[in-house]
Amino acid sequence: MESKQLAKSIVVSLDKHKGEDIRIIGIRELSVIADYFVVASGTSSTHVKSLADYVEFELKEQGITPTRTEGYASSSWILMDYGDVVVHLFTGQTRDFYDLERLWKDGEQLSLSEFLPAGE
């Protein structure tokens, strides 16, 4: 699956399951680690875990599994590595503390509308 389509599948899952403040950062031109970061918040540590579970389940149905998942036990920041797309799921306070959007401000800040079906 192309990296943009993979990011789209992730964004659709997060949006459907009430992920908050979903951001897509294109980092292809800045780093070899991935093409996209998808960053989202959950309302609680339970919600963050649920978002991770939903993304993993829905992508697994498409035959896609993460190469690595980190932080699931603490659930204040869960990182899911899908190769070309890295997903960062945070509680609000943890997201504010690490401020990935500032750290990757030179990345391409992509519009959510590019990744969600029309009318969402």
Note down, in words, how this protein is organized.
With 120 residues, the protein is of the alpha+beta class. Helix content is 34%, strand content 27%. It has helices at 3-16, 45-60, 92-98, 100-103, and strands spanning 20-26, 36-42, 68-70, 77-81, 85-91, 108-110. Strands 3-4-5-2-1-6 form a six-stranded mixed β-sheet. Helix 1 crosses helix 2 (45-60). The chain is globular.
Blueprint of the fold:
Elements: H1 3-16, E1 20-26, E2 36-42, H2 45-60, E3 68-70, E4 77-81, E5 85-91, H3 92-98, H4 100-103, E6 108-110
Parallel strand pairs: 2-5
Antiparallel strand pairs: 1-2, 1-6, 3-4, 4-5
Helix pairs in contact: 1-2
